[in-house]
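User: My instructor asked us to take a sequence, write out its structure as C-alpha cells, and then describe one feature of it. I'm not sure where to start. Here is the sequence I was given:
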Amino acid sequence: MYPLEDKREGSCYLITAFFAFLIIILVEWIWPDVIPFTLFEYWKLNGSISQILKALLPLLVFGIILNVIMLVRTRNDPLINQNAEVVFGIGCGLSTFAGIFEEISFRWILFYDQIIVYKILNWLFFGFAGWGFFEWFFNHISGPIANFLTLGYLEPYLFNGLGWFIGAAIISSNAKFRNGHLYQGWFGWINAWFGGMYFFYLMFNYGLIASILAHFLYDLFCFGLLYIDAAIERKLGWV
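Assistant: Let's start with the prediction itself. The C-alpha cells for your sequence are:
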C-alpha cells in the first residue's frame, strides 16, 4: 500500500505537465491541426453520476481484490496501526489531490503532449520517407499488446480513424502515470497501468470530470481498506 510513501514524484509530474501545457499552446498556435481534439474537448461530463459509478464498479472490484490480497499477506508499520484514523484523514486529502491533478496531468495535458511528440518523432524517424518507425511500432507491437491486455475495451480509441498517434499517446502518457508509482513496488506499478488505462476509458466515454471522480473514489477505497486493516491489526495488538 502507498499511503504515506514519498510523494516527491508528485511535484515532478506537475512541473512536467505545466511546461507541457505551455508547449501545447505554442505548437497549436504554429500548427493548429496537430491535435485532432479541441483543447477542452473532454472537459465535460457525459452521462449521469449513476452511469459513471456503474462504469467504475469493475475498477473498484479489481482494486479491492488486489489490495485485500496485499493487505492480508503483509503487516502494516506499527505507526500506521497506532494512527489509523490520522492516516485515513491524510488519505482523503491525498485522494482528492491525486484525483484532480493526476488526471489533469496524465489524461489531458501529457496525453495531448504525447500526440505532438509522436507526430514529430515519427516524421524524423523515416516518416518523411513514407515509413515511420513509431507508427510501425505502435501498429504492430505496442498497440496490439495494449489492446490485448485491456480486453479490447480501448480498441475504439487505440485504433481509431483519427490516427495511430492517438493510441500511441494513450500508451505513452499512461506509461508515465505508471512509472510515477514505482515507489509503490511491483504491485503499485502494475495496478497503476491497468488503472490508468481504465481512467482513459472513462474519460473517452464520460469525460475528464468522470475520470477525476473515479480516480478520487478508487484511491479513497484503497485508503479505506488500509484503515480497516490497520484497525484490525491494532485490535489484535500488532502495534
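For the description part of your assignment, you could build on this observation: Confidence is low (pLDDT under 50) at residues 1-8. Try explaining in your own words what that tells you about the chain.
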